[in-house]
Specification:
The chain is α/β, with parallel strands linked by helices. It folds into three domains: 5-38 and 425-459; 54-152, Glutaredoxin (3-Layer(aba) Sandwich); 158-410, Rossmann fold (3-Layer(aba) Sandwich). It is built from eleven helices and 19 strands. Strands 6-5-7-8-19-18-15 form a seven-stranded mixed beta sheet, sandwiched between helices. Helix 2 packs parallel to helix 5 and helix 7 (222-233) runs parallel beside helix 8 (249-259). The radius of gyration is 31 Å and the shape is elongated. The two termini are 20 Å apart.
Length: 460
């Protein structure tokens, strides 16, 4: 029998095809085996829905002991258990200290009594003998991370709120001028706060991690200015805000006196935004900001609009050694009106912009750092502004308190759209998927290849 060169070439081609198929099959099988044994995952969602924010990852990695997470969910759909357990799983992937178990709040009375559970579908976080409860409706990533920070902290940062000189107060619930929304924001984000009467103070209390002086309508006494200066020189933290066209110009002068050691102050003039695209559509005295200076405070709000109603400009040149970030600038079309008048139209004598309406200052102070947040309007965080929109003002306010407290890496866990939950497969489901991907699909390809080869052989 003689084998022609043509037949010989066909056999070599068939052998090569078989070898390639065998290699491809081997690679597919190996890839599936590795995938089945690996917990690695990729989040391809645009908003990173299935990935923890950097702040949450850091909070998880800071755990030094086991965090026992108990999900006391009532059996049945709509309890939130699937969503909560998916979220806890993301934290567990970042730290081996995260330990989760589920329990029935009706049957497991030991847990219910131990943690004083009063609502079904509650999550308990137990860490080093301290506990936090996440109730239904408060089980988002932001809530979970906030609880972690609170559990990991030995004490809550104390915000001392200046009163006695006409400042806005946290207890004021007025829908326009009140600051009760900020009070709730501090409570929810693990800050302690108390009032401090500055007018009679010769020094700032030692437990004040941050001091807030918000739009004093009366001039601060010289001894108060001296007390604040001494507090800052020792590494204190301050949030200070002023208003334009103050009823008592000496009040603005005294607030500027607090900032004088850093070369800064308040102009007292009213800022008018001349660019309609950079202000409230109906009021040029409410500048809008979307491009912010680079700071931990603004890391999550770039491109998101915030408003600065009836602001005055921050003036001056920083002293050597002071690091200043212009958080909220106006456009070049802005101008400032020095004195009270009814017409907002630009006139001779108005000061041309651009201006800074919010700045941060940081300066070395011994072994620590002095930090100051300066705002040209208290209205950036009053009830009217915070309740009227869901823009960046809330995150600016919270971020300021967190930056002053030194919580740079835990500022403002960004909100995300509803997450797509991971697909939970039973063992039978997994076996089916493995059979389809490692046997059935490659088998179909092999059979198809053999059929094509046989057809060509027969009809050649």
């Amino acid at each position: 029998m003689v084998i022609t060169p043509l037949v010989n070439r066909r056999m070599r081609a068939a052998s090569a095809s078989a070898a390639v198929i065998a290699v491809v099959l081997a690679l597919l099988v190996a890839a599936n085996v590795l995938a089945a044994k690996s917990s690695q995952a990729w989040d391809l969602t645009r908003a990173g829905n299935n990935t923890l924010a950097a702040q949450s990852v850091l909070a998880a990695k800071r755990l030094t002991s086991d965090l026992n997470v108990i999900g006391l969910f009532h059996p049945g759909a709509g309890s939130g258990q699937v969503e909560a357990e998916a979220l806890v799983g993301l934290y567990a992937a970042q730290s081996p200290h995260v330990k989760y178990r589920s329990a029935d709040p009706v049957k497991d009375t030991v847990d219910t009594k131990r943690y004083s559970i009063t609502q079904d579908n509650t999550i308990v976080l137990d860490y080093k003998g301290k506990t936090e409860l996440l109730l239904p409706g408060s089980q988002t990533e932001s809530d979970f991370t906030s609880a972690l920070v609170k559990l990991e902290s030995d004490r809550l940062p104390m915000v001392c709120w200046a009163v006695g000189d006409g400042e806005r107060q946290l207890s004021d619930t007025n829908d326009s001028t009140g600051y009760s929304t900020v009070g709730s924001l501090l409570d929810k984000n693990d800050f302690a706060h108390r009032d401090v009467l500055l007018a009679s103070a010769t020094s700032i209390p030692v437990d004040c991690d941050e001091l807030v002086i918000l739009d004093a309508t009366n001039a601060l006494p010289d001894k108060t200015v001296g007390a604040v200066d001494a507090y800052l020189a020792a590494g204190g933290r301050l949030l200070i805000a002023a208003e334009p066209w103050a009823r008592d110009p000496k009040a603005t002068v005294s607030l500027s006196a607090v900032l004088k050691p850093y070369g800064l102050g308040f102009s007292g003039a009213l800022v008018v935004e001349g660019d309609p695209s950079r202000s409230d559509s109906q009021d040029p005295t409410i500048p809008a900001v979307i491009d912010y200076g680079r700071s931990p405070i603004t890391s999550d709000i770039q491109g998101v609009v915030s408003f600065f109603p009836q602001a005055t400009a921050i003036t001056g040149t920083p002293v050597a050694g002071a690091q200043v970030v212009r958080i909220a600038p106006t456009s070049n079309s802005a101008y400032a009106i020095p004195g009270i008048r009814s017409s907002l139209a630009r006139q001779a004598g108005d000061v041309p912009g651009p201006f800074a309406m919010m700045e941060t200052v940081e300066q070395a102070a011994g072994a620590g750092k002095t930090r100051i947040v300066i705002v040209g309007t208290q209205s950036f965080a009053d009830n009217r502004t915070l309740l009227a929109n869901n823009d960046a003002n809330i995150e600016l306010a919270l971020g300021s308190f967190q930056w002053l407290a030194g919580q740079d890496s835990l500022i403002a866990v960004p909100a995300k759209p509803n997450r797509a939950l991971p697909l939970v497969l039973t063992q039978q489901d997994q076996s089916t998927v493995i059979f389809i991907t490692t046997v059935l699909m490659p088998g179909v390809i092999v059979i198809g290849g053999i059929a094509v080869w046989w057809r060509r052989r027969v009809f050649s």
